[in-house]
Automatic annotation (TrEMBL), chain A:
<dbReference type="Pfam" id="PF02653">
    <property type="entry name" value="BPD_transp_2"/>
</dbReference>
<feature type="transmembrane region" description="Helical">
    <location>
        <begin position="172"/>
        <end position="193"/>
    </location>
</feature>
<feature type="transmembrane region" description="Helical">
    <location>
        <begin position="260"/>
        <end position="285"/>
    </location>
</feature>
<keyword id="KW-1133">Transmembrane helix</keyword>
<feature type="transmembrane region" description="Helical">
    <location>
        <begin position="62"/>
        <end position="80"/>
    </location>
</feature>
<dbReference type="GO" id="GO:0005886">
    <property type="term" value="C:plasma membrane"/>
</dbReference>
<protein>
    <submittedName>
        <fullName>Leucine/isoleucine/valine transporter permease subunit</fullName>
    </submittedName>
</protein>
From TrEMBL, chain B:
<feature type="transmembrane region" description="Helical">
    <location>
        <begin position="219"/>
        <end position="237"/>
    </location>
</feature>
<keyword id="KW-1133">Transmembrane helix</keyword>
<feature type="transmembrane region" description="Helical">
    <location>
        <begin position="12"/>
        <end position="32"/>
    </location>
</feature>
<dbReference type="GO" id="GO:0005886">
    <property type="term" value="C:plasma membrane"/>
</dbReference>
<dbReference type="GO" id="GO:0022857">
    <property type="term" value="F:transmembrane transporter activity"/>
</dbReference>
<dbReference type="GO" id="GO:0006865">
    <property type="term" value="P:amino acid transport"/>
</dbReference>
<feature type="transmembrane region" description="Helical">
    <location>
        <begin position="244"/>
        <end position="265"/>
    </location>
</feature>
TrEMBL record, chain C:
<dbReference type="InterPro" id="IPR028081">
    <property type="entry name" value="Leu-bd"/>
</dbReference>
<feature type="signal peptide">
    <location>
        <begin position="1"/>
        <end position="21"/>
    </location>
</feature>
<protein>
    <recommendedName>
        <fullName>Leucine-binding protein domain-containing protein</fullName>
    </recommendedName>
</protein>
<dbReference type="Pfam" id="PF13458">
    <property type="entry name" value="Peripla_BP_6"/>
</dbReference>
<keyword id="KW-0732">Signal</keyword>
<keyword id="KW-0813">Transport</keyword>
<dbReference type="InterPro" id="IPR051010">
    <property type="entry name" value="BCAA_transport"/>
</dbReference>
Length: 327, 306, 380
């Protein structure tokens, strides 16, 4: 067993034990914090497929996070006001059912990722970073000025959506749902990285020519990776909206893209658990430093800077050393 | 729409574009020579504006304030280059984005800690205040005309610097082949510090010039930063000429789009809905322009490499 | 090693929340903006609120203050934390309408009281009103309605109006038009966060308007006023108090001199409470109080007036005590309407210079005992 997989097991146990402790100690807010970390980790896991596996530095993943969020907001707001989304040519009604909302979030963010990917993947390097940023900004400004769903004010959902057989308003049960999704997605990602697709993608990241000579199109590989990546981040967006019972254009802002990226880099790029560690650490820092001073962003900035400069490979890289499958 | 109004709007677009150029020139230079993405460029813009406001408040002189903005931003730039940025040149873009993102947090909150949460006062000097009459009956603020002139002078200066001076030769050589100029015995780390300080100083100057007609406050740099990135990407990263053309293109698109789109929409929509829809679309317009340019030309208008 | 310290830090972080809520005292959770852009407003509300609490010198009130960074997501989490962990009885402090919309409906649904010291979105005044939600500042439309009413009395018949393209901006122009009886020379929506208004000013110049009404909060307003003054246009400008507040007026400078603005408060409103408030605020914090500070101060005094009459655990009695609004407001006469929003006078102020400091002077009253149009839609 490598040190990294040991680390992953410890991390996974923490994600189970910490909320259990909070539940027994009657600290519901700690469970809420853990839920937030798990959801943001999920968004990071999504980005990590594009970033770590595919080498696609996207500064526009807030677009998918926001689309997932608005998928939830739009469906649930129509359901809570009992007004259908569309009456003709056929009836589409809102819903408060989580599985349906997740499905819609995954499909719509996947379609958006496909469209943005088709256009953006023509560019590389910094141009790719910037064109993804541009698409994110377009959606941000659109969501602010589009009055139907609250514009800049956002859209509050008064009661959390339901999941068959569970009480989602109970923090620990909602945490359970989010944790289960994260576990499933992590399992999927682990399999994906080892699959022929994942190996080809990894090869395309290192030398695109080599992949091309064996008859595989790097463009298609990347497009598939970018779309899967967007779908997962979109699902995280829907969960995040449900956690807050609220969606707003902030979810589309470039700072959100930056933060998701920070989770990935903080934990360790291309590490399976990188985003999980990164998101947990970020939430912890926010919670601890926020209490220290009004100017806590300074300390956060300094800490991030030190990590980039002196702890290459993120937390996991420092702790577990270079992984076997990491170049 | 009258011709006078249209001419005035073209001037406005030109002025916005020229100021974007002063901001973007440093960004594109730093990327071209050192291959560095600097998100903290907007913070240097803010530092320039705050330095200018502080000095103008103490001395009452606008010229001194501009000198202070230029030197404060250049000094902070040089310091940051030596302490932090220099360690990032060999890193991938990802590390650069994260490290300079961290710098934004430090600079923004640091400035707030020093100067407080309220906006500062910085005004146009009395000799540049008020409008002047241009041929054709246009009344246009003298200060904005000055901005256009100063920006064009800076652009000219940069062209001369790069094409005519020894430093310019080194910069061009650095863009083409980094190892070679080091092998030729040029102190590359000194060159990098100088280039970074020039870029920082220009951003600071732009901050002070623009700060006089806007509000000097924490966070003023980020919206401009995003626009500056749009400019250098459209122009082609590393190209000063591309940055100049792209900044004017962005300035005109943004200004004229905001005026013409609502007017266009009014042809077939109810007035207040047209105002709202037109404003929405015009706020997305420059990003649409950028995506469009990159789809047709993946390395920008004048870009050589990604 | 790293992991161990991480776990340890996590446990330590949770310690302060272990304290049990004291049954006899009232706990207030204040969520407001203390860092990043717009922090000045939150700081003023907090300082005004804490000044009143400090002056009352009572030991049965405990205030927990947290920074929302102007992010709705953070505000929602802080509200969860205050309700779940801190077990607060009353929430207050939010500055921005979008944050209020994210927090207030869920908080009052859980039986908490919410006293708004600044934001007053129309939904919370009308269809989405709640008996436990009290607005101590204004409904968002109020100051703009006063702007429209002032335009009528000033004889303006051809106004040019502009605001950012977001819900509060659209409401602002609707509010102005509700009272204003003249023609519109033009109506513009600008980008949120826009800093250059050259294009808008050119359109105002070309429109032939006889007056300009603008709602551009924060840095946007500073930029607009400076550029407007420099353009040489002589058309009178009117705006709500937000762009002429004590905090930002110094940054606008001469460009604001003589400009008329509408406000429910001014430092020269003649009553003992206000005089004492202005004096003690200045002594305590070394600056003149702002509109926001006065709202924070009034919010705290309203809360404490209810505490004198009823126990917060008896929600019905406490609510009745709040509705009575039996406290000395810095605004003079103050009472709640049927939707728990203020009925108050709204004044017209003019920017003047006192020594080196720019400030406002009240020159008239735009609306007397004004309530809001949404009250009719509110059913508890």
């Amino acid at each position: 067993m490598t040190r990294e997989s040991l680390f992953n097991i410890v991390m996974m146990s923490l994600l189970i034990l910490f909320p259990l402790w909070a539940w027994i100690a009657d600290e519901p807010f700690m469970i809420t914090l853990a839920t937030k970390a798990v959801i943001l980790a999920l968004a990071g896991v999504g980005l990590n497929i594009a970033l770590g596996l595919g080498g696609l530095v996207s500064l526009g993943h807030a677009a998918f996070f926001g689309i997932g969020g608005y998928a939830m907001g739009i469906l649930a707001s129509h359901a809570q006001s009992y007004s259908p989304i569309l009456e003709s040519p056929f009836l589409i009604e809102g819903t408060k059912s989580m599985p349906v909302i997740w499905l819609v979030a995954i499909i719509s963010s996947g379609l958006a990722a496909l469209a943005i990917g088709v256009l953006s993947l023509r560019t590389t390097g910094v141009y790719f970073i910037m064109i993804t940023l541009a698409f994110g900004q377009m959606l941000f400004f659109f969501s602010i000025s589009w009055p139907a769903y609250g514009g800049e004010d956002g859209l509050p959902i008064y009661v959390r959506n339901g999941f068959p057989g569970l009480n989602t308003l109970d923090p620990i049960q909602f945490y359970g749902i989010c944790f289960a999704i994260l576990a499933v997605v992590l399992f999927f990602c682990a399999r994906l990285a080892k699959s022929p697709f994942g190996l080809a993608l990894n090869a395309a990241r290192q030398t695109a020519e080599r992949v091309e000579t064996v008859g595989i199109s790097p463009y298609r590989l990347r497009l598939a990776a970018f779309t899967i990546s967007g779908m997962i981040t979109g699902l995280a967006g829907a969960l995040f909206a449900d956690l807050n019972r609220f969606v707003s254009p902030t979810m589309f802002s470039w700072q959100t893209s930056g933060e998701i990226m920070v989770f990935v880099i903080l934990g360790g790029v291309a590490r399976l658990f990188g985003p999980v560690v990164g998101a947990a650490l970020f939430i912890l820092l926010e919670h601890l430093l926020g209490g220290l001073s009004d100017y806590w962003h300074i300390y956060l900035g300094l800490l991030l800077l030190l990590i980039v400069l002196f702890a290459r490979g993120g937390v996991i890289g420092t702790f577990a050393g270079k992984g076997a499958n990491h170049d | 729409m009258s011709m006078i109004l249209l001419a005035e709007q073209v001037l406005n677009g030109l002025q916005l574009g020229i100021m974007l150029f002063v901001m973007a020139a440093g960004l594109t230079l730093v990327f071209g020579v050192m291959g560095l993405i600097n998100l903290a460029h907007g913070s240097l813009f803010m530092i320039g504006a705050f330095a200018a406001a502080a000095v103008a408040g103490a001395t009452g002189s606008f010229v001194l304030a501009l000198i202070a903005a230029l030197s404060a931003a250049a000094a902070v730039g040089a310091l940051v280059e030596v302490v932090v940025i220099r360690r990032l040149y060999n890193r991938d873009h990802l590390d650069q984005v994260l490290a300079t993102f961290a710098l934004i947090l430090i600079f923004s909150e640091g400035t707030r800690w020093l100067f407080g949460s309220f906006p500062l006062f910085l005004n146009i000097p009395s000799y540049l205040a008020g409008p002047v009459s241009l041929p054709g009956g246009i009344e246009y603020p003298l200060y904005r005309l000055t901005l256009i002139a100063v920006g064009l002078l800076i652009a000219l200066g940069l062209f001369l610097l790069i094409s005519r001076t020894r430093l310019g030769i080194q910069i061009r050589a650095g863009e083409n082949d980094r190892e070679m100029i080091a092998a030729l015995g040029i102190d590359i780390s000194k060159l990098y510090t100088i280039v970074f300080a020039i870029g920082a100083g220009l951003a600071g100057l732009a901050g002070a010039l623009v700060g006089a007609i806007q509000s000097v406050q924490v966070g003023m740099g980020e919206p401009v930063l995003i626009l500056a990135f749009v400019v250098i990407v459209i122009g082609g990263i590393g190209s000063i000429k591309g940055a100049l053309i792209a900044s004017i293109l962005v300035g005109l698109t943004d200004t004229l789009g905001g005026v013409l789109l609502p007017a266009l929409f009014k042809q077939f929509m109810e007035a207040s809905a047209a105002t709202s829809a037109g404003s929405s679309l015009s706020s997305m317009l420059i990003y649409i322009l950028m995506a469009g340019v990159l789809i047709v030309r993946p390395t920008g208008l004048f870009g050589a490499r990604a | 090693m790293k992991l161990k310290s991480l776990a340890l830090a996590t446990c330590m972080a949770s310690l302060p929340f272990a304290a049990l809520a004291d049954g006899h005292s009232l706990k207030v959770g204040m969520i407001t903006t203390l860092s990043g852009g717009g922090a000045g407003l939150g700081i003023d509300v907090r300082d005004g609120f804490m000044l009143a609490v400090g002056q009352a010198d009572r030991n049965d009130i405990e205030v927990v203050i947290e920074d929302d960074q102007r992010k709705p997501e953070i505000a929602v989490q802080l509200a969860d934390k205050m309700i779940q962990s801190e077990k607060v009885d009353v929430l207050t402090g939010i500055i921005w309408s979008n944050l209020a919309m994210a927090v207030v409906p869920a908080a009052v649904a859980q039986g908490k009281f919410y006293l708004s010291p600044n934001a007053g979105p129309s939904v919370l005044a009308g269809k989405g009103c709640n008996e436990n939600y009290f607005n101590v500042a204004w409904q968002n439309d109020n100051l703009h309605e006063a702007g429209g009413a002032y335009a009528n009395t000033a004889g303006y018949a051809n106004s040019f109006i502009l605001a950012p393209n977001y819900p509060a901006g659209q409401d602002a122009l609707t509010g102005y038009k509700r009272m204003y009886e003249g023609e519109l020379a033009g109506e513009l929506f600008t980008k949120l966060g826009q800093t250059d208004y050259a294009s808008e000013i050119a359109q105002i110049r070309a429109s032939g308007a006889d007056s300009v009404y603008f709602f551009l909060p924060g840095g946007m307003g500073i930029a607009f006023l400076k550029q407007y003054a420099d353009s040489g246009l002589e058309i009178p400008v009117v705006g709500p108090a937000f762009s002429f507040d004590q905090g930002i007026l110094q940054a606008v400078g001469d460009a604001a001199l003589g400009v008329v603005n509408t406000s429910q408060w001014g430092k020269d409103i003649d009553n003992a409470t206000n005089a004492q408030f202005v004096e003690t605020f200045q002594a305590e914090y070394g600056r003149l109080p702002s509109l926001y500070a006065s709202q924070g101060f009034d919010t705290a005094n309203l809360l404490m007036s209810a505490m004198d009459v009823a126990d917060v655990n008896d929600a019905d009695a406490f609510r009745t005590a709040l509705q009575a609004a039996d406290f000395d407001s810095t605004r003079g006469a103050f009472k709640f309407g049927s939707n728990n929003h203020p009925i108050q006078d709204i004044y017209v102020r003019e920017v003047i210079k006192e020594g080196d400091v720019y400030t406002n002077k009240i020159i008239g009253t735009a609306l007397t005992e004004h309530s809001d149009v949404y009250a009719a839609e509110c059913k508890f």
